[in-house]
Write a structure and sequence with these properties.
Helices cover about 20% and strands about 60% of the residues. It is α+β, with helices and mostly antiparallel strands and about 180 residues long. Strand 2 (about 35-45) and strand 3 (about 45-55) form a beta hairpin. The radius of gyration is 20 Å and the shape is elongated.
Length: about 180
């Protein structure tokens, strides 16, 4: 019984320090097979636009993408899963020149959390390459993004209380449904 309270206390402590999508603007780097840059801007509640440029250093594949993403709470509003879709370009970086530009439709699915001013996310981004010699091809890339929050999301006192207690109320409702 005591372990249950300790675990609940730990989750409460963690939830007060981890805020998913607790920002309006964040900028950073993408790390994976290659190095890249990312800028993310919240445009509506649970919705962001992200601009990405990555590749061309250790791998000849280079991408520039713009994606719209929808964020969903996991366990609480403090950790988000997200999915998105966008438009992009793909090039081969050969002999220090960009060659063979192709248009892509990138998708994304990932997890995200924010610790103070550090935003951390991991995702998988499949690309449907449209004009590859009249053939469609598919490439998928897994990356981790580390961003610095430039503009924090401002919450008034009412929103902060609502955010803290909505998770507790949702858990109580779920327990009542299970008992029924």
């Amino acid at each position: 019984m005591m372990n249950k309270y300790l675990f609940f206390g730990f989750l409460l402590f963690l939830s007060s320090h981890v805020i998913g999508q607790g920002y309006n603007t964040a900028i950073g780097v993408r790390l994976g097979d290659d190095l890249g840059f990312t800028v993310q801007q919240r445009i509506a509640n649970r919705t962001t636009i992200e601009g990405l440029f990555y590749g061309g250093r250790s791998n000849p594949d280079t991408y520039a993408n713009v994606l719209a993403q929808r964020h969903f709470s996991l366990l609480s509003k403090k950790l988000n899963a997200y999915v998105g879709l966008g438009l992009g370009s793909h090039w081969q970086y050969v002999n220090e020149e960009f060659e063979d530009q192709q248009f892509t439709i990138p998708g994304v699915i990932g997890l995200e959390a924010t610790f103070g001013r550090l935003n951390l996310s991991g995702d998988v981004m499949p690309h449907l390459i449209l004009n590859n010699n009249d053939e469609r091809s598919y490439k998928s890339i897994a990356n981790v993004s580390l961003r610095i929050v430039i503009v924090k999301r401002k919450l008034d006192a009412k929103d902060k209380l609502k955010e803290k207690f909505s998770d507790l109320n949702n858990n109580k409702r779920k327990k009542k449904k299970k008992k029924s």
